[in-house]
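Hi R.,

Quick one: here's the Acetoin utilization protein AcuC sequence you asked about.
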Amino acid sequence: MAAPPAAVIWDDALLAYDLGGDHPFDPVRIDLTMRLARSLGVLDGVHPLSPTAAPDAEIERVHRPEYLAAVRAAPTAGWDVGHGLGTIDNPVFDRMHEAAALVVGGSLLAAERIASGAARRAINISGGLHHAMADHAAGFCVYNDCAIAISWLLDHGVDRVAYVDVDVHHGDGVQAAFYDDPRVLTISLHQHPLTLWPGTGWPTELGTGAAEGTAVNVPLPPGTTDQGWLRAFHAVVPSLLAAFRPQVLVTQCGADTHREDPMAGLGLSVDGHLATYRALRELAEQHADGRWLVLGGGGYELFRVVPRSWTHLLATVLDRDIDPNTPLPANWVAHAVRLAGDRPLPSSMTDGRDPGHQPWDGVAEEPVDIAVRDTRRAVFPLHGLDPDDPRD
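And here's the predicted structure, written out as tokens:
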């Protein structure tokens, strides 16, 4: 029997989540992604599902009612907003609650399609707002759609959810939401907290009480390239997913690990992103019966990186893999160049990098290997795994 099709959550109304002006979290990156995916035929025959705004009761799975009230009031409240609103990172914009609630609605719709069996995979590239906390906005994120969708899944027939965050920034809001909940495994690979906001995500952040060991953090040194990043990923993530046995894999797929991203300092390529997405797809098949909920996230090279990376992500979710050497369509380039100004655009779907990597062997003393060792030694014994044995 054929697997149900993957669900793509999209509506142009999602572009209303716009922090304005020259803010780096510009919805043009999502618009260009969808245009590129259409131009390459990735979405041929696919009918995107339009979300509706999440009701307060769903948002309050994670956020406090007084915070929702503050978000609603913020556009007319002047400067003294509080709750992390009205800052440089999180400026107030018109109909902010409605726009953020629609993003949450998109991730809830994705979760519903998976829980109901209507789809084994679902993707909302407008989602991934992983920094928002219970009572305040943070890191460009108003409502934490990732955590809300996970909470919804746990109330609709799912007993164990694994969340893997490959954004360059620590997935702090999702970790905080489930820090004492043993039903949720959160794994975040990110740039080292001494070198990048939000300054959290140490290997010693493990969860509390019965959830000890279900918060996993892999802090990577600045400059880490595809090879080191993928070595760390494969040395940590597959073993923990096998031990945890999730029923759904949720992934936040921020593209800001790229070497050209202006907000951070890792050194990945689009080719490394593609290798990661395909690895996540395989891990969902192996350990979550193929049930994979995919969200966007960060990514601030708006023209050269995010559209290519997330078009590969959409193609991976839909099993319509794109040859990295595929040229960028002329019609897409013509549109993008008008927006990019004098910034040159790439010519194809590859950066020309080989993302092949050497597996972690437990011996090497490179900075990436030390990071892997520290994480494994902190968390692997809590799952009955040998931290020093590369076979685990």
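The chain has a mean pLDDT of 97.

Cheers,
M.
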